[in-house]
Specification:
The chain has about 180 residues and is α+β, with helices and mostly antiparallel strands. The chain is about 25% helix and about 30% strand. Strands 1, 2, 3, 4, 5, 6, 7, 8 and 9 form a nine-stranded antiparallel β-sheet that branches. Strand 8 and strand 9 form a beta hairpin. Helix 3 crosses helix 4. It is globular and about 45 Å long.
């Protein structure tokens, strides 16, 4: 069974959306922290870090697979081995909060806050052709779900390139997050 259960989405007023995941990974937080906060760690499951100043207020620029657009931003929360938050132009705010469970397991309380009408470039989390909260959420939820599966794989010693939009697993996740069409 995957350590990644389905994420959730909610409205944050008229112009913001919030996605949440809580993957429970069978790894100590000391192992997970570098995967979230170092260029080598991020490359194994999320994105290239062109710039990453590992401190509160530091600059960060992430670039998606296949030379996608650069997403510049700032480190907006930093509590060593506990919380890191990146606020990226075009993507919004992504936050990883690590909570140890015993000595060899960790829950990541993840959130992604964004504006659904904002263009969604890069990181393979884009949403071409999507308009409206639920359709955008489905794209982002599927993308993050797949990324957390890749994080688990990277932590097991099998880093992977970020998924292409044609990735079969990503397509299945997209379908699982897409709300059923309304009856005519």
């Amino acid at each position: 069974m995957s350590p990644v259960s389905h994420g959730t989405s909610e409205s944050r007023g008229e112009d913001r959306r919030l996605l949440r995941f809580e993957p429970h990974l069978p790894h100590a937080y000391e192992t997970i922290w570098p995967a979230l906060t170092t260029p080598d760690g991020l490359r194994g499951w999320l994105a290239e870090a062109d710039v990453l100043e590992r401190r509160l207020g530091g600059a960060v620029t992430l670039r998606g697979a296949e030379g996608g657009p650069a997403l510049p931003g700032q480190v907006t929360a930093w509590d060593v081995e506990r919380v890191v938050e990146y606020t990226l132009t075009g993507l919004g705010r992504i936050r990883f909060h690590l909570e140890p469970v015993g000595t060899d397991s960790t829950v990541i309380r993840f959130s992604h806050e964004y504006a659904p009408d904002q263009p969604g470039p890069g990181l393979g989390l884009d949403r071409p052709g999507s308009t409206g909260g639920r359709a955008v959420d489905a794209e982002y939820l599927a993308g993050w779900h797949r990324r957390f599966e890749l994080l688990e794989s990277a932590l097991e010693g099998h880093p992977a390139a970020p998924p292409a939009r044609t990735d079969q697993r990503l397509a299945a996740l997209r379908a699982s997050y897409t709300p059923p069409a309304a009856a005519a």
